[in-house]
Design a protein that fits this description.
- With 329 residues, this protein is mainly alpha-helical.
- It is built from ten helices and two strands.
- A two-stranded antiparallel ribbon has the order 1-2.
- Helix 4 (130-152) packs antiparallel against helix 5 (161-188).
- The protein is globular, with a radius of gyration of 21 Å.
Length: 329
């Protein structure tokens, strides 16, 4: 049975309102952080892959509120996705009732996470490694490459049949994984008002917004979805600059994915794509010439090589899992 859609609430208007909400709440995090300091002391900073925004002496309630908020948020989104699939909703311009519930629910949990940070501070970082948060979103971006292969190809517009087969399965079930990756990362971090945290939370808000618009045409808008893919570049580069770590390999590697793969999802002419590719190559040379040095140009290939290798690995895993489930059915 199909659910009636709210024809007077266009999903594109919901998108615009959601972006405005995301920007305003990010500003609120910054402002409230200066007025309402969080508990202290934090763990001391350590070298290496270490997340320092944790309480030195966590309590039962700091853990219970973080994990409780995460689990409630997670189960809500999974239930909404399952309900929408059970109703076999069509893709429409207007919002379905389930979209309104998802938008309202995510806004509620955003507010609850802010309050939880102000009162108890700790996120999931107290109990799980930072690599899990980073990897959850990294894998999500790889799955997007797999799903989009049928539309824009993988290498300069050319489709890969193995990846296309995996993409069919991923498009059917990706909502559950994406909801986990986003909500897990969202609750991993306390809502600190550092520039890095605010950039990250703004990105998380936009991803939650995209997840709330499932089964609407806005959810499939190629410019909006590509913007979400590209925002990871802005986040990675700005955080790298602020932390004094390497950023050149992030911007050149991720933009390399754009000219190899993502650009072919846009209705651009061959001449425009060629011009964008030339501009990219020139920018790579300039960035390394004036930065780390041309001897480090090999770094440009690191992210594309890892991502394409991950695409093939996860494609095999997805196809294998689908066959195993089909054989057991």
């Amino acid at each position: 049975m199909q659910s009636p859609q709210h024809r007077f609430i266009d999903s594109s208007w919901a998108l615009a309102a959601g972006i405005a909400f995301s920007a305003l709440f990010t500003a609120f995090i910054w402002y409230s952080g200066s007025l309402w300091p969080t508990p202290a002391p934090y763990l001391p900073e350590r070298p290496g892959f270490w997340y320092e925004w944790q309480l030195a002496e966590p309590t039962f309630w700091t853990r219970a509120t973080a994990w409780g908020g995460y689990l409630a948020h997670q189960l809500m989104l999974w239930w909404l996705i399952w309900s929408a699939k059970q109703r076999q909703l069509p893709y429409t311009r207007g919002l379905h009732p389930v979209n309104i519930l998802a938008l309202a629910g995510n806004a509620l949990f955003i507010g609850l996470h802010w309050l939880q940070t102000r009162l108890w501070y700790d996120g999931l970082a107290q109990d799980v490694h930072e690599a899990t948060s980073f990897a959850s979103v990294a894998v999500m971006l790889v799955v997007i490459l797999i799903m989009e292969n049928h539309r824009r190809g993988l290498f300069f517009g050319r489709k890969v049949s193995l990846v296309s087969a995996a993409g069919e399965v991923a498009r059917k079930y990706h909502g559950y994984y994406f909801a986990w990756a986003i909500v897990y990362t969202f609750w991993y971090h306390p809502m600190e008002n550092t520039p890095g945290h605010m950039i990250g939370f703004f990105y998380m808000f936009l991803l939650l917004l995209q997840g709330s618009l499932f089964f609407t045409r806005t959810h499939l808008n190629r410019y909006w979805t590509l913007s979400l893919e590209m925002l990871v570049i802005v986040h990675a580069v700005l955080v790298g600059m602020m932390n004094g770590t390497r950023w050149e390999n992030f911007v050149t590697g991720l933009l390399g994915l754009f000219v190899i793969t993502q650009i072919y999802g846009l209705p651009w002419s061959r001449a425009v794509r060629f011009a964008a590719t030339v501009a990219y190559l020139l920018s790579v040379v300039l960035i390394y010439y004036h930065g780390r040095g041309l001897a480090y140009l090999y770094e440009v290939f690191m992210i594309p090589v890892w991502d394409f290798a991950a695409v093939f690995l996860f494609s095999l895993l997805i196809i294998g899992a689908a066959r195993l489930m089909r054989d057991r059915a």
